[in-house]
Write a structure and sequence with these properties.
single chain; Beta-Lactamase; 2 domains; 6-stranded antiparallel beta sheet; about 25% strand; transmembrane; kinase
């Protein structure tokens, strides 16, 4: 039997429990959306902080290399200004040069300056104090710093590969009166420079050469640095760390500065890779930096746990408050009915 149109239908009643559940669900979805947005914003803040700190490491590396070059040049210029050294170089007197500079070189070698030598005006290597039996070789084809100093008659600073290896070098011009007689160079080891950057930034640093880009000869037993494909780990502040990263492919040759997140020993971290440029402007490899950010992971986890807990508590309290309100209003509604 159908209900006459004039008779109103009884209204649908929703129980207070159902209404509370619906309210709690809406609140939970709202809190979930807010948490997702908050987490995304946290990730962005942490990524910006990470990139900012790694950019500071990059700047520290550049500054340290520049400072090392100036130090090397200062040591070279100290010898270049001695008249006795200029006369001995002009005369091609290797014995006199050795006698004049052997003691200063012994001290410099103990201070991380293993390369010290004199180039004649014809751009042959007259005397290597670090390799005294190796002399007379033509430098015009592979030592661009010597060529530049010879042509411009001006001091030069930079990173360059030579017979003895890869060093930060400073080359000073030597004149005997008004006559140009040659140049003198000092070269610094890379390891102390990297350690200096590590002290300043708390990041581990490595110099990685590319055998193909640097046009290095085939490797021989005893050559410095372990090789991983085309890459050679020349110097670093943590050999096991960079050996593992190179072996796993976490560090690859990069032609622009790259910063990528990476877990270091179970902690949040990042890897910076930037081109390694020699004096001539040629890319010969990369400088890599690795830094962990334990505070990032701990702070992020703590904050997220607190936010999730707050959201859950808020949802439960809202649900309970709605139920209490509904029970208080129910007798009044029944009385009015």
């Amino acid at each position: 039997m159908s209900v006459p149109p004039s008779v109103p239908r009884p209204p649908l009643r929703v129980s207070s429990v159902h209404a509370g559940l619906i309210t709690a669900l809406v609140l939970a979805l709202s809190f979930g959306a807010m948490l997702a947005l908050t987490f995304s914003m946290q990730n962005d803040v942490i990524a910006r902080d990470r990139d900012h700190q790694m950019a500071a490491v990059s700047q520290a590396i550049t500054a340290a290399l520049d400072g090392a070059g100036r130090f090397a040049l200062t040591q070279a210029e100290t010898s270049a200004r001695q008249r006795a050294v200029a006369r001995a170089l002009a005369a091609g007197d290797r014995a006199a040069l050795t006698e004049l500079t052997a003691a200063p070189y012994a001290y410099l070698k103990s201070q991380g300056v293993p390369v010290f030598g004199f180039h004649a005006a014809d751009m042959t290597y007259l005397l290597r104090l670090h390799l005294p039996d190796k002399f007379g070789d033509d430098l015009t084809k592979f030592r661009q710093m010597v060529l530049a100093a010879n042509k411009t008659r001006r001091s030069q600073v930079g990173l360059e590969i030579g017979v003895a290896g890869t060093f930060v070098r400073g080359i000073a011009v030597i004149n005997d009166g008004d006559r140009f007689v040659g140049t003198v160079e000092a070269g610094l080891n890379l390891e102390p420079i990297l350690e200096q950057v590590k002290t300043l930034t708390n990041a581990d640093i490595a110099v990685v050469l590319s055998q193909s880009l640097a046009e290095l000869p085939p490797r021989r037993p005893g050559d410095k640095g372990e090789q991983f494909g085309d890459l050679i780990a020349l110097a670093s502040t943590d050999t096991p760390l960079f050996t593992g990263l190179l072996r796993d492919g976490a560090i690859r040759l990069a032609r622009t500065r790259e910063i990528t997140p990476h877990r270091i020993g179970g902690e949040t971290g990042a890897i910076l890779v930037q081109p390694l440029i020699d004096f001539s402007g040629r890319m010969i490899g990369n400088i890599a930096a690795v830094k962990s950010f334990p505070s990032h992971g701990a702070a992020l986890q703590r904050t997220r746990i607190e936010l999730i807990a707050a959201a859950l508590i808020g949802t439960v309290l809202a649900f309970v408050a709605f139920l209490v309100s509904a029970r208080m209003l129910k007798p009044r509604d029944e009385a009015q009915a």
